[in-house]
From TrEMBL:
Fe cation binds at residues 359, 362, 373, 376. GO terms for cellular component: cytoplasmic side of plasma membrane. It comes from Thiohalospira halophila DSM 15071. TPR repeats lie at residues 38-71. This is Lipopolysaccharide assembly protein B. Belongs to the LapB family. The lineage of its organism: Bacteria, Pseudomonadati, Pseudomonadota, Gammaproteobacteria, Thiohalospirales.
Length: 390
């Protein structure tokens, strides 16, 4: 049963509802008795809702509405039910009919406007929904709820400036956890500016992103990319190295950028020193793998394999083992290579099965990094997979 309790409570006074619940739970002869002052038909409708029989509930409420068309609560409950069932046109008609009444109290009118806004959102009519939520203004019981919906609309429509404004109003009203989301909006704007060749504006947005969330990895990566494009190697290194402190799970994203900058400066050994520090401090797979790659290139496969074997005995990992077998296979005699081949093939397949990225909120798995989860739409919840970051 996914109806919000709010809908149920609209139907009855709370005291009557709780009394009736107790009677119903006890299951005694009085279970279906009606509390004084409550229409027994309401209770029957409520029963249907509790039993998840929304069709029956809708039939009953519709019949009741024909008899008693003045009941605001019934209109709201019925409209909400229709919307949930996907019958958006009927929901819109009910809510419009309600708003047209001159006798509504202000809170009732605001609630009906809010519901009508939700109907339009559900129908994909974002412009109209935006107008309705905008009407709810900055005050009143429904203004915060409307602002949350507005933020969702702006996000959907990629109107990042408006989304930032809505989120900042929500933050001023006490929703403190929106900083990282506002930082992502600024990153979106930075990427747009960067693509359009507006470097200064892009930099300004990156500074704002880091102001709202100093752990914003994405801002550091964009900054590193811009510096690489401008051949500003030191700035690229500064931005790339920042990622290790912001969120070590994302180090693997920064490493190719760092390697490019260090190599362009003709100082490929320095990155190895830095990686060693990071790896000793954090014990992550990403710097370890990067070190093995660099060692193989700079010192040869024997050194790289020896180093990796020592690390793997301390901290086993599937990706590390696959890399180790690959290095061993390269150095082995032809006969040994034949023996290692099936082991390597199995390990390779196991590593390929690991998701590269996974959403910590909904479990979405993918091979591409998304800053906003394509499945649950949460920001910054998609992280490098456990094996990559372990
Ligand atoms: Zn998700």
């Amino acid at each position: 049963m996914d109806l919000p309790l709010a809908v149920l409570f609209l139907l009855l006074p709370v005291a009557a509802l709780s009394g009736w619940f107790i009677g119903r739970r006890r299951g005694g002869g009085g279970g279906e008795d009606c509390p004084p002052g409550v229409n027994p038909e309401y209770l029957r409708g409520l029963s249907y809702l509790l039993e998840d029989r929304t069709d029956k509930a809708i039939d009953l409420f519709t019949r009741m509405l024909e008899v008693d068309s003045e009941t605001v609560e019934l209109h709201l409950a019925l409209g909400s039910l229709f919307r949930r069932r996907g019958e958006v046109d009927r929901a819109i008609r009910i809510h419009q009919n309600l708003i047209a009444r001159p006798t509504l109290t202000r809170p009732q009118r605001e609630q009906a406007l809010y519901e009508l806004g939700l109907d339009h959102m559900r129908a994909g009519l974002f412009d109209r929904a935006e107008e309705l939520f905008g009407e709810l203004g900055e005050r009143g019981d429904w203004s915060l709820a409307a602002l949350r919906q507005l933020r969702a609309i702006y996000e959907q429509e990629k109107e990042w400036d408006n989304a930032i404004r809505a989120a900042r109003k929500l933050m001023n009203a006490g929703e403190s956890d929106l900083g990282p989301v506002v930082a992502q909006y600024h990153c979106e704007l930075a990427e747009i500016d960067r693509a359009a060749g507006r470097g200064r504006e892009a930099e300004r947005h990156l500074r704002q992103a880091l102001g709202f969330d100093r752990h914003c990895v994405r801002a550091s990566l964009i900054e590193a990319d811009m510096a690489l494009a401008a051949e500003a190697w030191r700035s690229a290194i500064k931005a790339g190295r920042r990622v290790a402190d912001q969120d070590p799970e994302f180090l693997a994203e920064a490493l190719p950028r760092l390697r490019r900058a260090y190599e362009a400066m003709g100082r490929p050994l320095e990155i190895l020193h830095w990686l060693r520090e990071v790896e000793e401090g954090q014990g992550r797979a990403a710097p370890l793998m990067a070190m093995v790659d660099l060692m193989e290139r700079q010192q040869g496969p024997d050194q790289a394999a020896l180093f990796l074997r020592n690390r793997l005995t301390e901290r086993p990992s599937l990706r590390g083992l696959e890399r180790y077998v690959a290095l061993t296979r390269e150095r082995a005699e032809p006969g040994e290579q034949r023996d290692l081949e099936p082991v390597y093939t199995i390990l390779e397949r196991m590593v390929a099965d690991q998701p590269l990225y996974q959403c910590t909120h909904c479990g979405f798995r993918g091979r591409v990094l998304h800053w906003q989860c394509p499945s649950c739409k949460h920001w910054t919840t998609v992280k490098p997979g456990a094996e990559a970051a372990a």
